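Continuing from the previous page...

OK, I double-checked the sequence for Plasmid maintenance system antidote protein VapI against my notes and this is the correct one:
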Amino acid sequence: MDHPGGGTPFTVRALAEAARCQPATIGHLLAGRYRRTETATAIRIAETLGCSLATLFMDGPSTDPDDASI
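Thanks. Re-ran it with the corrected sequence; updated structure tokens here:
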């Protein structure tokens, strides 16, 4: 997780501390066990990382070769 200032990348614990949430929340979001979180928490994470909410919580493109959607 890149630091917005170009510094040392965030650890899960450092991002959680900066975004004022539990490290488990960050870990679960990264692992895909949580697909959403409280709005205020999501905003703090995005602000800490210096990106938009959409960047953090949009589904990426499918990696399924049988997916016909383009």
